Amino acid sequence: MSAVWSVITQYEALPQFIPNLVLSRQLSGQNGKILIEQVGQQTVFNVNFSARVVLAMEEDFPNAI
After folding, report:
1. Model confidence over 18-44: pLDDT tens digits?
2. pLDDT reported for residue 53
3. Are 25 and 35 in contact (CB under 8 A)?
4. Which residues pair with 44 in a beta bridge?
5. Helices and strands (H and E) in the chain: how many
6. Fewer CB atoms near the end CB (10 Å): N or C, the chain?
7. Distance CA 24, CA 5 (A)
8. Whole-number Å distance between alpha carbons of 22 and 35
């Protein structure tokens, strides 16, 4: 279970697996509470779209994120 948990909580590696996600990084974290910044980008009809979100997440190993 801890091997799976370590894979799904590697937030910086998410752009390798999620299309159009260009940045995913942990901003801060303590006591199971984490801030993650993510930036997505896509070009449609030669127009670049970009969106940024900061997610407040809580980890409860090994039950939930």
Report:
1. 999 999 999 998 888 999 999 999 999
2. 98
3. no
4. 47
5. 1, 3
6. N
7. 17
8. 17
Local confidence band at 8 (pLDDT 50, 70, 90 cut-offs): confident
Confidence of residue 54 (pLDDT cuts 50, 70, 90): very high
d(CA 22, CA 40): 5
Model pTM greater than 0.85?
no
In this structure, what token pair is assigned to residue 38? 């993510």
**Residue-level length of the chain:** 65
Say which amino acid occupies 42. Answer: Q
Query: Residue 57 in contact with residue 65, Cβ under 8 Å?
Result: yes
Contact 11, 31 (CB under 8 A): no
